[in-house]
Write a structure and sequence with these properties.
Blueprint lengths: L3 H6 L3 E3 L9 E3 L10 H24 L17 H11 L2 H8 L2 H8 L6 H14 L8 H10 L11 H15 L1
Antiparallel strand pairs: 1-2
Helix pairs in contact: 2-4, 3-8, 6-7
């Protein structure tokens, strides 16, 4: 494989407008293979559209996102998981959705018992209900181990990869 320096040299140069300094060139940024995949873009657009539709429903119903400043205990290299969980429970549309009773969610979306969404709903309810102290996310760790087995254990993991795995699981159910 070429060295990083040689790879940088292969990045195409883009000529700036004539109005700018004559002869100045800037390097184009290399494409991100994960985000530029057509299937990722389609999934992202579908998820964004679905969340927008839900947001409109919740606005009409007058529900507001719940908030808490509670932390999560580290269970051994679980910072990546904790940061993603914090971001997800504070996402206004997902937050409003998870406030609905589990039976109503299941009736609407039909995800069934023992699904990832059922477990995530339970985690959300516990997280938002017990606001006085930091929470041990053991139930969420167990869900991760069951539904995302390649991330099981106490090894360091990538937060973005964990987020994408959760979004895929939720979008499959919802």
């Amino acid at each position: 494989t070429p060295s990083p320096k040689k790879q940088q040299e292969k990045v195409p140069k883009v000529q700036q407008d004539d109005d700018d300094d004559e002869g100045m060139q800037e390097e184009a940024e290399p494409a991100d293979p994960l985000f530029d995949r057509p299937d990722f873009q389609q999934e992202r657009q579908a998820f964004t559209l679905a969340l927008g539709q839900l947001d409109n429903i919740f606005k009409q119903a007058g529900t507001k996102p719940l908030s808490t400043h509670k932390g999560l205990h580290n269970l051994g290299n679980s910072c990546y998981m904790n940061s993603v969980l914090q971001a997800l429970v504070h996402n206004p549309s997902l937050n409003r959705l998870l406030q609905l009773p589990l039976a109503q969610l299941d009736q609407t979306f039909g995800f069934g018992a023992n699904s990832f969404t059922e477990g995530f709903h339970g985690f959300f309810q516990e997280y938002m209900t017990n606001v006085s102290e930091a929470m041990r996310p053991e139930a969420m760790r167990d869900l991760r181990d069951q539904f995302i087995p390649y991330m099981a254990g106490t090894e360091q993991q990538d937060a973005q990869e964990f987020l994408l795995a959760i979004l895929n699981l939720l979008s499959g159910d919802l």
